[in-house]
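Model it.
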Amino acid sequence: MSPDREHLFFVGPGRVGLSLGYALSQEAPVDLVYAGRRPEPPAHPLFIQGTARYVYGLRRPGAGTTAVILSVPDDAVAETALRLGALGDAPDGCSAFHVSGALRTDVLAPLHERGYSVGSLHPLQSLSNPVTGADLLRGAHFAVAGEPQARRTAYRLLSHLGAPGLEVPAIRRPLYHAAAVLASNYVTVLLDVSRELMMRAGVPGPEARSALQTLVEGTVHSYAGSEELSSLTGPVQRGDLDTVRLHLRTLEPVERRMYAAVGLAALEVGGTELDDATAQTLVELFEAER
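Modeled.
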């Protein structure tokens, strides 16, 4: 039987925890408590509007808490679980989650021993802002793992956000997380480098950012409509050796290495229909920059 109201206890008022709590507060009846290391809460609408309560320091969750969410950095999860477990047994029926994409649930063993049903709940979304991040979580995918009760709790929370769950076996979590890093963090790096190149070409920074955003949105739209790599375009896909050579001559050393690494990846994963000689020439051009 589902509770009429969720009572959530977040350890760590960081970007993920604040985004998730803010999103849930807008979609479902929830009581939110955040425990943090600083005497005062961060300047966030949850606290400014009185939607959430802030407590200074770690403490045992109160009776009726339905889920504890450790929204702390990966390297702090084990220690936080140990410290929280030392404070006492779990409230009746309470689940405990970490939000790491890479860690397994056994890192929460101290909480399991105290009666918590443990699991993980990782949002597959880039959350750089703890306020606007709430909007991005609606409909986003989450990787879910853990004990049966924790999984039921996770899917109940996700149902409020219209967010699908992804089932990833524990042994394959590193693959899942590497995919997330490539598709999010590294794309951001590529965009930052691209904006710098645009600005060096004479395009003002704000215009460069806007133009690249439009370009990436078009790329994502094409990708979403294709099951294969047929959405790949550009000089590598065409086998345009002159353009590739021109780019490599123009770029700075770090940029050349990045360009070459991604170019090699494009050749290796497929999506091109090049003759052997052209493909081999491209490989040699790119490998020369490694």
